[in-house]
């Protein structure tokens, strides 16, 4: 099978914010690729730079105080950092759609759901109001909201959390984008609705052939949806690879820590979860060595002084850890979780 087309390639992206307390180095040299029809999951705890990475590419961070200091983001030959328009159209919402983390605050409470979806089509596709409203009803039905015509005329306060999230997905898909960015799409939803939203995204991906960039801290969601995984910590990529590489052949101690802190039925009812002690480093003054040094159970003296680079662990598997250096005599201890992904995805 031939390798799928790369639709988005980000290289050495660095983002900073000017604040009263100093400069926050929020994203520090992030690189990744997104392939057509596949799902890339970006994983990490809050504050690691996941959302800022994608929002900066989309031009959604305020500048100032934010700024992109270096790097590139290329969508099918188009540099997104310097040009957000292709053929006179804003790429945001047309070629790249985005589902935001909290639909309650992302939707306009003074407009009906149908009007908000229709507005996207009028702005990006030049539809008339009647054409856009008719298409909005079709999109609402496509995301499996019953009685779509009636729901299109209702306001956000009349929708449940799951229906609001489906409405956001309908809006993001209105212009049939090549890439869908889903920022914590299951936050604050109960597990049953979470499963329905994930199934919906996977079905739509198969139907439309679009790529998905999934931003999450939930490894269960990752196991269910991802083809490739990028683990971020302190504004950097600390591990990247296929879902099997990261889940079953994890190479970075932070990845191991995330796995150990994840509940699984296969561990048994009395198995204690292992938290990651400590806190992430202060990004006002990032450490000169490894960002995970202060919390790492495998830390070595050189980890504090020398900043690690991404080292190759396998064909497309990389880890930012000195334990993976060819001269290292130590290894990252694995976890005895034979089917973590399978256990994690059960609803």
Which features does this protein show?
347 residues; alpha/beta; Rossmann fold; 2 domains; 8-stranded mixed beta sheet; globular; disordered C terminus
Which fold name corresponds to the CATH topology of the largest domain? Answer: Rossmann fold
Q: So what's the CATH class of the largest domain? A: Alpha Beta
The number of strands is 14
Total domain count: 2
Largest sheet: 8 strands, mixed
Q: Strand-residue fraction? A: 15-25%
Mean pLDDT value: 85
Instruction: Enumerate how many helices there are, as a single number.
Output: 12
Shape: globular
Strand line-up in the sheet with most strands: 8-9-10-3-11-12-14-13
Structural class estimated from helices and strands: alpha/beta
Q: What is the CATH homologous superfamily assignment of the largest domain?
A: P-loop containing nucleotide triphosphate hydrolases
> What is the H/E string?
EEEHEEEEEHHHHHEHEHEEHHHEEH
